Amino acid sequence: MANASTTPTRDPEALPLPPGPDELPVIGSTFDLMRRPIEFVDRVAEYGDVVTYRVAGQRFTAVLHPDRIERVLVSESDRFRRWAGEEWGDTFAGYGSEGLLLTEGEQWRRQRLLIQNAFTPARIESYTDAMVAETERTIEEWDDGETIELTDETSKLTLRILTRALFDLDLEERRTVVRRAADALNARANARSLSAFLPSWVPTPTNRRLHRAMDDLETLLEALIAERRADASDGDDLLSLLLAVETDDGSTLSEREVRDQLITFLFAGHETTALALTYALHALGHHTDTRRRLSEEIASVTGGDPPSVSDLGDLTHTERVVKETLRLYPPAYAIFRQATETTEIGGYRIPDGSKLTLPQIRVHRDRRFYPDPEAFRPERWTEAFEDSLPEYAYFPFGGGPRHCIGMRFAMIELELVLPTVLSAVTVDPVGGPDLAFETGITLQPADPMDAVVHER
Ligand code: HEM
C-alpha cells in the first residue's frame, strides 16, 4: 500500500511548471549577478516560493518556503538525491566521491551508521579540551596590536582542532597541502569562474591547479593512513575507527573509502566552522555593545578560567551570537538536490531530474519570519521566538537523514572558541560592516578580512 504521507496529492504530470524569469537579463549577465548571491536570490524570489531560473544552460528550481523545504529534506527525502554539479563536470571533480558527503544509497547508510559513533555526545565532550587548547595556542601566536587575516587564522585554528580531535593527527607542517586543496576546490566551484561550468578534465588553469593540489593531498593522506595502519596501538579517534571497523558481514572499508572520508571531513569540518568564526568576529567587531555584553557573560560564567563543556548551558548569549551568525552568514549558503521522479511542490510540477536549490542565504533573511532581517541581533533568539519560527525557516546544518553529521561538534566548537578568544583579546575589523561574498562551495568573503588584535 502506498504511504499516504509521502504521496503527492495531485497527479504531478497535470500541473504547471513553476514560474520564474526565463533568463535573468538584469544588470549585465547572470554571471555578474552570481557575484551578489543575496541579490540574485532576492530577484528570483519575486516570482514566489517555488521558482525556476536558468544559469549557464541549466534550469534550477529554488524552493523558498520552510514547509516545502521540509518536504524536500525530510518527509519526502527519498524523492530527492544530493546534487553535486554532475552535469557541469562534477563540482568536486571526482575527489572524495567515496566519502560520506557524496555517497548515496546503501553505501552512504553503512558509512553514516559507522561514522556516527565518532559523534555521540560523550565522544564530542572528549574533544572539547582540544578545542580550547588549540584556541589558546593560536591566540598565543598573535602579537598585541598585530593585524591578522581572519579567514586564514580561523582556518588554521579549526583545522588544528579537527585533525587533533577527530584523527589524532598533527598536520601542522603539512597544513598548506590541505589549505591549497580547499582553496583550489573553492576556486573551481566559484560561480564567477568559467571552470565551474566545465568538466574537470578541461585543462583550464583552475582545473590544473585543482588536480595538482588534490593529488598532493591524496598522497599525504595515503601516507598517514599507512602510518596509522602500521601503528599497533588502538586509538579511539575517527581514523582508527574507520580502519578497525568490521560490519556484520565481515567487510571493512576499502582503502579508497578511508582516504575519501579523510578528504570529506578535512573539508566539510574545517572551512565551514572557520567561516562561522570569521563572520562572528566580524559582526561582534561592528556591534561593540553586543561584544561587551558577551564578554560580561563569559566573565561571570567562567570566572576567568577557560570555558568548559559544563559552562555551555549558562552561556546563553554566546549561543545566540552563534545562531545569529549562522542565520545571516550561513557558511553552507544553499543545499542542492535533484528529483529522482516527477513530483509536486507548491502546486507545481517538478520533473524527474530537476535540480533544486534550497538557499539558506535567502530563507534566513526572509522578513516573513525575521523582523529586521538584515540586522545582526542575537537577542532575537529568545525561546518564544524559536517556538514561533517555522522549523525550516532556519537550517544552517540542513535537515533530514543527510543533515550535517558534525552539527553538534560545530556548535560546541563555536561556543567554546568564541569565549576563549574574547576573554583573551579584542578583535577589531579593519574594513566596514558590509560584506561582499563569493559563492564557492561555501560562502566566502570576497575581500580580505583584516582585523587588529589587542590583548585584554
Ligand atoms: C558551522 C559549521 C558547519 C555548517 C554550517 C555545516 C553545514 C552542513 C550542511 C548544510 C550539510 C548538509 C548538506 C546537504 O544536505 O546537502 C552538511 C553535511 C555534512 N557536514 Fe557539515 N557543517 C558544519 C560543520 C561540520 C563539521 C564540524 C563536520 C565534521 C566534523 C561536518 C561534516 C559534514 C558531513 C560529513 C556532511 C555530510 C553528511 C551526510 O551526507 O551524511 N560539518 N554540513
Give keywords.
alpha+beta; three-stranded antiparallel beta sheet; disordered N terminus; monooxygenase
User: Order of strands across the widest beta sheet?
Assistant: 1-2-8-5-3
Shape: globular
Q: pLDDT average, as an integer?
A: 88
CA-based gyration radius? 22 Å
How many domains make up the coordinates? Answer: 1
Helix content: 40-55%
Unreliable stretches: 1-8, 25-29
Ligands (ions, cofactors included): protoporphyrin IX containing FE
InterPro entries: Cyt_P450, Cyt_P450_CS, Cyt_P450_E_grp-IV, Cyt_P450_sf, Cytochrome_P450_Monoox
Protein name: Cytochrome P450
GO molecular function: heme binding; iron ion binding; monooxygenase activity; oxidoreductase activity, acting on paired donors, with incorporation or reduction of molecular oxygen
Organism: Natrinema salaciae
Provide a short characterization of the protein structure.
The protein has 456 residues and is an alpha+beta fold. Helices cover 46% and strands 11% of the residues.
